[in-house]
What does this fold into?
Amino acid sequence: MTGLLNRILRRLTWLLCRLLPVHKRKIVVSSFYGRGYSDNPKAIVAELLARNCPYRVIWLTRGQAAIDSLPPQVEHCNYDSLRMIYELSTAALWIDNCRKEARYKKRKQLYMQTWHGFAL
It folds into this structure.
């Protein structure tokens, strides 16, 4: 029953957060479902930080090791939290290298998928 209630709560949170405005200078990033600062998203964020771009970067993380891997300019947010839904719902850009679970992207938001390898 707890799993069902959790899914209902998450779905309601997504629906409510769709009403919130998009912040133009906010980016939410994830790599391998929150395992840490790595892969193509890391390269993109590293370049943004090197150029001193005025964006708020929030990295979705799972566990302390993932948090510890982040540069100090990057905020973190727990991958499976309700706050993650809020951050994704209000970010202008999502950067990711893996599939996402059910997400509800607004028209004003961009989703940059950085997969690599063969596309079948």
Q: What stands out?
A: Residues 2-17 form the longest helix (16 residues). The first strand starts at residue 23 and ends at 30. The mean pLDDT is 91. The chain is about 35% helix and 25% strand.
